[in-house]
Specification:
elongated, about 80 residues, mainly alpha
C-alpha cells in the first residue's frame, strides 16, 4: 500500500477513534478532556463503556486475621 494511502487510513482511524473516545460524555466533560490532551496530561481516554462492573470477575482474597473494618474502627476510636 502506498505511503499516501496509509497516511489517509491512519488519519481516518484517528478521527474515528477521537469521536468514539468522547462518546457518552457531556459537553463540559468533552471540553475538559480536550484541554487535558492539549496540555499533554493525557493522550487517550479509556473506554468506560467496554464492560460493566457487574460483568467483571473479581477474585476473592482470603486474609488471615481480623477484618480490616475492625482494625479501622480501633485506629479511629
Amino acid at each position: 500500500m502506498p505511503l499516501s494511502a496509509r497516511r489517509q487510513v491512519r488519519d481516518e482511524l484517528n478521527d474515528d477513534l477521537a469521536a468514539t473516545e468522547t462518546n457518552g460524555y457531556d459537553s463540559k466533560e468533552q471540553q475538559f478532556i480536550e484541554s487535558m490532551k492539549r496540555k499533554g496530561l493525557i493522550s487517550e481516554v479509556p473506554n468506560r463503556f467496554k464492560r460493566k462492573i457487574s460483568q467483571k470477575r473479581f477474585e476473592r482474597v482470603n486474609v488471615i486475621g481480623k477484618p480490616i473494618s475492625e482494625t479501622i474502627i480501633e485506629d479511629r476510636g
